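Quick illustration, no need to memorize.
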Amino acid sequence: MTDHRTVDVGGVRLAYQVSGPADAPPLVLLHALGMDSSDWDAVAPVLARRRRVHALDLRGHGRSEWPGTYSLELMRDDVLGFLDALALDRVDLVGHSLGGIVAYLLAEEHPGRVHRLVLEDVPAPHPRERTVPTRPEGELTFDWDMVLAVKPQLDTPEAQWLERLGRITAETLVVGGGPGSHVPQDGVADLARRVPHGRLVTIGAGHLIHRAEPEEFTRTVVEFLWPEGGADPGPRA
């Protein structure tokens, strides 16, 4: 059973879905740009068999508040505030694309809060060619101003983001989408190399790995989060 809840973090209302046993180790899922917590619906039930799964809508997305002020650092701080509000001391953390950047920024800044880290098709933060985003037609489930605010950060990341990858202490699994992804896979491999306890697995499904190949994705993540069928007790809330 999945519950839909909200919590106030620093004056911003954040929405999230929670599922799994209440006494299980906590797992937090962070979605990609323009998505929301429902994007994990195909894989969350499997992960919730052994974890208390919290799928968050980042600010400016879905049912969370659209406050008009946006940056990747603010999203990172929102996630930290979310953990504090729910009294989650240490968590497993899974992030896809934009959510993966938010996840590694949190793991850099507060390494003690992340037990195991999964980064889905996320490259190392190197500058890339700037492009001008085009607003999709119709009503959006995310704030277009948020896209315009974070796009320059995605194109020209802060230099310290790359430098601080070495601060991450969590065992880290980087999952690349292979040649079908628009994300350069050499950048994904570079991210895995730069994180001290990082390793790379490729699932040739393109950028949307957990949606295109949900069974293989969940099997890979489950084996990482609880190796040898459960020898890893997971983080403590």
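The beta strands are 3-9, 12-19, 26-30, 52-56, 91-96, 114-120, 171-176, 198-202.
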